[in-house]
Amino acid sequence: MPQEEPLKNESDTVIDEETEKMIDEFLTKKRKAILYALYGGKERPHKELADAAGTSPASLSNILLKFEQFPYKLLDSRTSGKYRYYFLTKLGRDYIERRYKDVGAGDSEPERVLSHEAARLLQEAKECLEKFREMHEDDWEMLLDDALISRIKYLEIQDSESEELVDKFLEDIERVLLGNGEACMDKVLKLLSDNAILQARLARFMDKFAPFAFVLEELDNGQDILQIYGFLEAAVKKDATAAKACSERLGWHDRAARMLAAIEEIAGAMKDRSAEEVYRCFCWYLAGDKALSAFLTKMVNGCFESKAQQQ
User: Fold this and answer.
1) pLDDT in the model for residue 14
2) What is the DSSP letter of 11?
C-alpha cells in the first residue's frame, strides 16, 4: 500500500504561490474560523476554541484531525495539566499574513478575501450571467427576475436553456458561500449591482439555502455522516425525539430547528410532484449535492406514500 505523504517541516516551508494555493483549497469556512480564532498569538483549549470558531467540540475534533492529516502543519498543541492548548505554527501565521490584507494588531481579524477556488467559481457565475444577458438582450433582467422567483417558489423554469444557465449561476454562488460564508455575500451581490430588485431576489434565494449550507459544511468538515443522515431522516419523518437526540450528539442545537423548517417547507411545496421533480428541487438548495438530494427525496417520497396508504 502507498504510504501517506509526510507532514512538511514548517521551518523548511516557504509560502510560495503553489503552497498558498494548496492551503487555500484545504481551508473550508470552519477551518478558516479556527485559524482566525488562534491568530494574534492566542492559545486556546478545546472547548474555548470550539466556541470561538462557532462549532461544537465534537465537530472540532473532526476538523483538527483534518489539520493533522494535511501535509502542511498550520496548527500545533501543547498539554498543560489536564488541558490541551492549540496555537498557530509559524507557517500558519505566515500564511494568514500573506493571504489576507490589512492585518491589525492584537485581536483584529484579517480582512477576508476569496480563495483561488472561490474566485474561480465567482468568475464562472459571472460568465453564466453574461451568457444569460447575451441570450435575452433587453429582456434579460425581467427574465432573470422571473427565473429567480420560480426557484424561490420551488417551480421549474420553462425555458430549458435559461434554466441550465440560472442553475449553474446559483450553484456556483452556493459553493462560493460554502467556503467563505456570508462575509462574501457582498462580492456575490456586486454581480447584480445595477439592479436592486435582482439583488433582493438573489438574497432571498440564499436565505433559503442557508439552513442546508450548514449541513454541507458539516459533511465537508468530517462530522459523523451517520448522525447527520439519522437527523435528516428523523426530521423528514417528524420524529422529534430521534431528531433531538441526533442534533444533541452533533452539537447542532438551535440550527436543527431551521433545517427542519426548511425541509418541511420543501416537502409541503412538492407533495404533488414526481420523485424526479422533488430530487431536482433539493439539488437547487444543496449546491448540486446528488447523494444528499437523492437521500432526502427518498425520505420525503416515503412519507408521501405512507400518508397516501393511511387515507
Assistant:
1) 67
2) G
Instruction: Please report the pLDDT score of residue 59 as a whole number.
Output: 83
Report the pLDDT value the prediction gives residue 51, as an integer from 0 to 100. Answer: 80
The number of residues in the chain equals: 311
Helix or strand (DSSP H, E) at 84 = strand 83-88
Give the position of cell 465534537. Answer: 58
Its sign, for the CA torsion 206, 267, 249, 288, is negative
Which CATH code of 1.10.10.10, 3.40.50.300, 3.40.50.1100, 3.90.1510.10 fits the domain covering 10-99? 1.10.10.10
Q: Which three cell numbers stand for residue 56?
A: 461544537
Residues in the chain with pLDDT values less than 70: 1-14, 99-115, 179-183, 253-255, 304-311
Helix (H) or strand (E) holding 44: strand 44-45
- Quote the cell numbers at residue 245: 437526540
The pTM score is 0.69
8 Å CB contact between 135 and 175: no
> Which residues on neighbouring strands pair with residue 84, listed in sequence order?
79
Count of C-beta atoms within a 10 Å radius of residue 36: 17
| DSSP run (H or E) holding 93 | helix 90-99
**Angle, in degrees to the nearest 10, between helices 160-180 and 196-220:** 60
In the chain, ranges of CATH 1.10.10.10 domains: 10-99
- What is the reported pLDDT for 143? 95
All 3 cell numbers of residue 294? 437523492
Distance CA 194, CA 199 (A): 9
Q: What is the per-residue pLDDT across 163-185, written as a single tens digit (0 to 9) for each?
A: 999 999 999 999 888 866 665 77
pLDDT given at position 1: 42
Q: In this structure, are residues 94 and 14 in contact, taking their beta carbons and an 8 Å threshold?
A: no
CB 57 within 8 Å of CB 83: no
Alpha carbon 141 to its chain's center? 28
Relative orientation angle of helices 275-285 and 196-220, to the nearest 10 degrees: 90
